[in-house]
Amino acid sequence: MTDLSRSERIRLNEGLRDWLAYQLRQTERTLDELRREEAEDRRRREVARAEMSWKLQPARVEGTQPMLHRGNCGLYRTQLGYLDREHVVIALEEFPELAMCELCAPWGSLGIPRPRRQPGE
Questions:
Q1: Beta sheet of 67-70, edge-to-edge order
Q2: What global pTM score does this model have?
Q3: What are phi and psi of 53, to 5 degrees?
Q4: pLDDT tens-digit profile of 23-50?
Q5: pLDDT tens by residue, 7-16
Q6: What are the CA-CA distances from residue 10 to residues 14, 15, 20, 48 (Å)?
Q7: Closest Cα partner for 80 from 93, 71, 91?
């Protein structure tokens, strides 16, 4: 390469720079796409987790029962965490008259009969 003139070496290095810049742009696009896919996978896993889970809304008034919702129920939004089936069974043992959301019908996903309506509902 020492036989090349300075202007030829400049031209070659500019070409190399342009090619490397192109490769960098392609790599950045690939990284952006992979990050979007990863975020979408994370979102889908969270949606699936919510659909397979339940959440417990604390009683609003002293002396009343908490209310059980499906994890994806929009009536009660919480970021406190979801319950798995085992924890729902514990909640049902602790609160035998546990209220259940009429909108999301958590009894169906638990495989239990629909609870009878409470007075005043």
A1: 54-57, 67-70, 99-100
A2: 0.65
A3: -125, 180
A4: 999 999 999 999 999 999 999 999 998 8
A5: 999 999 999 9
A6: 6, 9, 15, 56
A7: 71
